[in-house]
């Protein structure tokens, strides 16, 4: 007897009577030990003997009770195994033929057999010829072309020696085979590296999803989901698409995408992102973005685009771009030098080909691409999105950070801090009047007041009490009394006396708060003060930026008192109060004139991108303040994430400089060793197998660089 416990999802169950009916139906099945159903989570937990009953029979019993059910899938985050292998059968055959070509040196008539082995290798590796020609069209790394060139030259030279019946021809034919083996090996290895760069993100999603249609739930593959389908999400499940809650209530963990660690409640109309996890409750989600259009896939696409961009500036970029020319120059010097010294064309040719064979031409591009890829992905995991390689490089060299107060320093929503009625007016009466005036307005202050009053359990008003209630808020008439709300300037323009309230208003303003006054006819009946709270960790982040030698300019869009308070609390020297657009452009232009790299931090407007990012950063020297030049996005309002972006960029710059320096040292050492040093001590031509093996090892090491 093997007792098993499994959880089944049950659709559309909402009353206890139905739940009891399903439980009785399932318990009556032979082999079922216990069954319990949760109306809140729409799940059925069953303990049964899997030797006596199968899950399909339990599902059938639920359906007989009038409800749809399916076995709840346990979502696993598994990587997609690669079906690509470097060491294929043709490659192994090429290696054997190359070894056989070397053995022919000591076999009778081996000189005449060796060309056959070499031609067989040419046939097996014929697929690398188009790749070699393709490299000439985009000559960032022409390693395959160089190997094919070596193979062709050594084969032709071998034919010439064969006609002269020179036994050294066998060595050249073997060299051509090993060069083709190297070309095929490097081609397949580079493809494998690119496959690793573009590892699919779909593995983070569940394989199937419950879709509600035709009054029942059916299981569909996530890859087949379509826009406007209704997807049922239950506890423990991963959301497979972006969309809005059609019905239900759930608590979601969105930290994998947005970086917000606290669970988020989702109700009807709330937006839910793919890769979020349902912690509690159950919702029906109407899909708006599926597949590669989801926010998660867009983030992955952005990271991969940054990683695959080869425009990373390096101190050695000029050397990188001309490495093949430098190698050809070394080939000519080695060949001509040894021909002049020994007057042996075969020896000189072998030395020259050894120089070309030891040059690990893709190593430089691999070090940069691999480091950029892992930095971009690591940054995305930290909720930092580099949109371009230029931004990934230049962020570490920022000299000036221009920050908008909203999103960068303070939250965009106001929070009520003071709720003060006039003497003679009870707090409950003031709350009722304030709700009547503010609940119908869409102004930021009105939203803050409404949120605050809802926490005080003010959920509505009796409209019949008011003979006039403005649809836009701020105006109301009740029992012949005219109520209104406005800021200090508006109240004074109406000739209302504020002398009794001035000291309090002055103190609140000095604290950086905005004050909204409420009046009845010509007297003030109370005030509400609110402030945009400072984001967590801002003072510490500002000090850290200053310690890094970065100048900070704060663009304050609040009141003058709020600007002064921020300047004092953050100890900033450069605060511009409500700057005009041309002032910002001039500021950044002046920074570029001083050869500074500037970063402009602003809020992420919804029209810019559908990505769930909160802060946009324009990086550049003389950056234009247009959203087309955004180079960095932060998916959460944390200035500390901008500091992380700077450190990631600085670390990447250092790693690439050291790695590329190491590759350059390898090239200098390998060319010197195989082209000029070893030929002095070896009286016969060196087999290309040795420099080719060194080149392959260097390429492999570069591809593993992090």
> Based on CA inertia axes, which overall geometry fits?
flat
Q: What fold name stands as the CATH topology of the domain at 384-411 and 535-637?
A: Rossmann fold
CATH architecture of the domain at 384-411 and 535-637: 3-Layer(aba) Sandwich
Which stretches are poorly predicted, pLDDT < 50 over at least 5 residues? Answer: 74-84, 606-610
Q: Helical stretch count? A: 24
In round numbers, the mean pLDDT is 82
Q: Which bin fits the share of residues in helices?
A: 40-55%
SSE layout and pairing:
Layout: E1 3-10, H1 16-27, E2 32-38, E3 43-49, H2 55-64, E4 69-71, H3 89-103, H4 110-124, H5 128-137, H6 143-163, H7 169-197, E5 208-213, E6 216-221, E7 230-233, E8 242-253, H8 255-258, E9 264-266, E10 271-272, E11 277-289, H9 295-308, H10 317-321, H11 323-342, H12 345-358, H13 363-381, E12 384-386, H14 389-394, E13 398-404, H15 405-409, E14 415-421, H16 427-438, H17 444-455, E15 466-469, E16 475-478, E17 481-486, H18 488-493, H19 502-510, E18 514-520, E19 523-531, H20 538-547, E20 551-556, H21 560-570, E21 574-577, H22 581-593, E22 597-603, E23 615-620, E24 630-634, H23 639-681, H24 689-703
Parallel strand pairs: 13-20, 13-22, 20-21
Antiparallel strand pairs: 1-3, 1-4, 2-3, 5-6, 5-7, 7-11, 8-9, 8-10, 8-11, 12-24, 14-19, 15-16, 16-17, 17-18, 18-19, 22-23, 23-24
Helix pairs in contact: 3-4, 3-7, 4-6, 4-7, 5-6, 6-7, 6-12, 7-24, 9-13, 11-12, 11-23, 12-23, 12-24, 13-23, 13-24, 16-17, 23-24
Structure description:
This protein is an alpha+beta fold. The protein contains 24 helices and 24 strands. The protein is flat. The two termini are 52 Å apart. The relative contact order is 0.10. Residues 74-84 and 606-610 have low confidence and may be disordered.
